[in-house]
């Protein structure tokens, strides 16, 4: 560290140098991320609440009121307005909280959780941190959680089953309705990870898409992860966790001796209120109509991309259910496709199961970007 400070103009100049090295979503070159350009209204709201700390909510009752309202609105979107939860850092923290709530309410000596093989890696972190035995259920022919595999894995130590509504790699929706039935029958906690799909499935259904039920309208669903910083267009870090019942938050409440609240259920202590403000502002500003438009536009571009990928001579791993297009080639190995695309300036990502190029059609990807990408895809084949 230097003894003397550097004048601010020079600091900004230095910052711009670093920023130039970063990719931007706006360029349309990022094809493999679930994040996107944050909406300007979300950015403005976020920057208005930079000093707000929801870890000490008595000092920020205005922000706390917004958080309560956001949780009610998101619950309403997901089938139940009177839910309990928090706006946190993202899907990882949300999944960690859900697994902690499930473990603590059950109170078994050797707790196990069952997740689909397609589950996000955050469940491996949760299992490690919470000392849970992680059981992986197989997928069926359309890459959804296989129910008979789940039934085989259930034991007297099972504290939670996880279904995913919009898998990270392929955008698939697990059979949540059937999982709900099973979990009611066996009295097992069911968590739905809708980090990616939570902000799009409800709006696509409103627009007439034929997608399965996945939310609190199913009686077995105990909690849902929904990420405003993915399809919700909020700035990073903004995640959401919703619980059907307050008892799940209480099961992980820790006493906080010197703060304005007595108990805290979140993992982080000091917690930005800016994420809540951004989520609140965007829900109000975009409304159902705005979010329906975001979700359906992404799907229309997804179908165009899928068609173009097939026409370029590549094979879709599966028809898109949400806005992800995974593909392979019978002639070129996946890593080689990725290398050639990266050489042409495209930031793609790879799915691990099955191995495939995976393109996530987030709102920053416009038709012109997809057309330019398809030109390059034809050229490398
Ligand atoms: C992105 C994602 C996560 C993790 O969310 P982060 O915000 O990156 O922590 C968890 N589950 C699913 C299904 C996801 O797509």
Name its key features:
single chain, 381 residues, alpha/beta, seven-stranded mixed β-sheet, four-stranded antiparallel β-sheet, globular, binds pyridoxal-5'-phosphate
Give a brief description:
This protein has 381 residues and is α/β, with parallel strands linked by helices. The protein is built from twelve helices and 13 strands. Helix 2 runs antiparallel to helix 10 (274-311).
- Tell me the number of strands: 13
Helix content: 40-55%
Separate helix tally = 12
| Spans of at least 5 consecutive residues with low confidence | none
| Radius of gyration (Å) | 22 Å
> In what range is the share of β-strand residues?
15-25%
Please provide a written account of the structure.
- The protein is an alpha/beta fold and 381 residues long.
- The protein has helices spanning 8-21, 40-48, 61-77, 91-106, 122-130, 147-153, 176-186, 201-206, 246-250, 274-311, 334-343, 367-380, and strands at 84-88, 112-116, 133-137, 158-164, 189-193, 221-226, 239-243, 254-255, 263-264, 315-316, 324-328, 349-352, 355-360.
- The chain has a 7-stranded mixed sheet, sandwiched between helices.
- Helix 3 packs parallel to helix 10 (274-311), helix 4 packs parallel to helix 5 (122-130) and helix 10 crosses helix 12 (367-380).
- The protein is globular.
- The termini are far apart.
- Pyridoxal-5'-phosphate is lined by residues 34, 90-92, 95, 120, 122, 164, 168, 193, 195-196, 227, 239.
- Pyridoxal-5'-phosphate (PLP) binds next to helix 4.
